[in-house]
Amino acid sequence: MKAWLRPVRFSSCGEEDRKNIIICNYDERPGYAGVPNPLYTRDNAILMTGDASTSVGRLVQMARG
Q1: Which of 34, 33, 35, 42 has its CA nearest to residue 15?
Q2: Which of 25, 43, 47, 57 has its CA 20 to 30 A from that of 13?
């Protein structure tokens, strides 16, 4: 598995050390707590909205070329 596609632990993903962050989420809205996610506004974040299974499938296709 490519290092940049390696799964990370959500509680400690080290996002401050990553060159780019790919976020697969249904939308940009805050979750149940109503707290906005600061990762969404980072310069190195790529937000792929929509169904996560579709987004991951698109990521795999892009990685394969």
Answers
A1: 42
A2: 57
